[in-house]
Predict the structure.
Amino acid sequence: MRVAVYPGTFDPITNGHLDILERAVNLFDQVIIAIAEDNYKQTLFTLEERRYLVEQACKHLPRMEVRTFDGLLIDFVQSINANVIVRGLRAVSDFEYEMQMAMMNKKLNHNVETIFLMSASKYSFLSSSIIKQVALLDGSIKGLVPVEVEEALKGKYMLKAGTREG
Ligand code: ADP
């Protein structure tokens, strides 16, 4: 059984993430989307919110499961008997960091392979952080994130604006 883990912060999930996931489920028997708990990154959405948004966005996908994890990714991968890590590559700028991570993970567990899927060109500029920046300034993010994410971002930033004013 070929089980792959697609890890990330997913703060929040975008259509770029979804595209990678949709392609990964066609390649493996099972794909576990693994949402990292708040580690060194300050996240806008809580772990439970990120999980909910991922679950909503992935309802249509077969053979996949949503999990959360903390600590070392490679320990999580081992604990569920998976043998592949899937990562998306957008631009050359992703490459150096991703190569370093893949090599370190290989060093920590040589039975686990990291494979990279190239981002679809229409999403290659897309990141969770640029989505948050545009949403904060009330720009349109239609077609770039699932509708639930669009709504959730509106809610978050309205709440923040309310707190600032109040
Ligand atoms: P991390 O905090 O680990 O970088 P992210 O949630 O930002 O997690 O991203 C998870 C994975 O999805 C990474 O492999 C990242 O390169 C990939 N990814 C992010 N945005 C896109 C996109 N627009 N197209 C393809 N892959 C993407």
In short: The two ends are 54 Å apart (CA to CA). Residues 11 and 129 are 8 Å apart (CA to CA). Helices lie at 15-25, 47-57, 73-79, 92-108, 128-136, 147-165. The first helix runs from residue 15 to 25.
